[in-house]
Structure formats: structure tokens, C-alpha cells
Amino acid sequence: MESLSSFLTGRVIIKVGDITTEAVDAIVNAANSTLMGGGGVDGAIHRAGGPEILRQCKEIRRSQYPDGLPTGHAVITTAGRMAAKHVIHTVGPVYRQHDPAEAERLLRSCYTESLRLACEAGLETVAFPGISTGVYGYPKAEACDAAVRAVAAWLATHALPRAVTFCCFGAEDAALYRARLGLTS
Asked: Which of 23, 32, 121, 125 has its CA 20 to 30 A from that of 161?
């Protein structure tokens, strides 16, 4: 863990906060496949960003994903009225619908595909929520492990994004990320 922590020092930020207020190039939305908003992080992002996000999501559905965005995939839109410039929407796995190995593969894909879009767009800063850890039922410790491994693997071979924030809903979630990274504070 110490080598993982030192490798990511300065490129990974862990904080407790409201992802809709993050002043980064992109925030990641734990979306549902419809891209039309919903509960939790998804609903909060749509409410905070305003109607432009929904308009762009409807166009993505019409032109690219008429049957919905598949699990593990990602798309990018404006962030509307939020401080962030973009929203990267990704659909995490519903934990109980997959065997654990497949759920992990799909969850890691959410992070990798989101980072790929950020890199392609030249974005330097990205903030992630805990994807699939709400109503989708992914155990938080396992989700944290998958997230950290996916982000670390990406950052090991890519210059962008320059910094990744894990924007946690509460202190307990942030403690999971700090422990996984071997951080004491």
C-alpha cells in the first residue's frame, strides 16, 4: 500500500463533500441507463446542472444509445449551471445482478471509460462519487478497492487527468479510500 500511496500522491484527492459543487473539469455521474436523471447522485446532478444536461442526454439517447447506456460505458455532457465544466455519465453495475467478478469488471470499466473520455477531451481534473454504492447495492469496501485499482492503473500510464478526486458522501466512505491508499490523514 505504501508504494500505491506514494505513486498517487498529488494526483489523488479524497474529500467529503457535495460533488455538484466541485470546481473541476468534470464530475462523474453515477447514472442509470436511461440518462434521464433519477435518485441519489444522478438526481442531484441533474437538479444542480439544470435542463441543458437533460437535453444533451436525450440527444445521446436518440443518436447513440436508443436502448440506454450500457453498464460500464460512459458519455460526456455539459455540466450546465454547476462549477464543473462537464459531466461524465456512467452506469455502474447493480451488484446482485452479477457474480462478484463480473460486477468488479463492470465497475472498473465505469472508472476507466470515464477517465478515457476525460483524457480524450483534454480534461485535467475529474471528481468521482462512489459508483454503484447506493441503491445499486455494491459493498462500499469492495467498490472502493475496485475504484482505487482502476484509477491507479489509468494514472500509471496516462498524464491526464492530472488529478482525480474521490468525492465521498460521508466521513466513513472517505476513511475507506484513505485506508486503501495507506493514508493516515
From this structure: 32
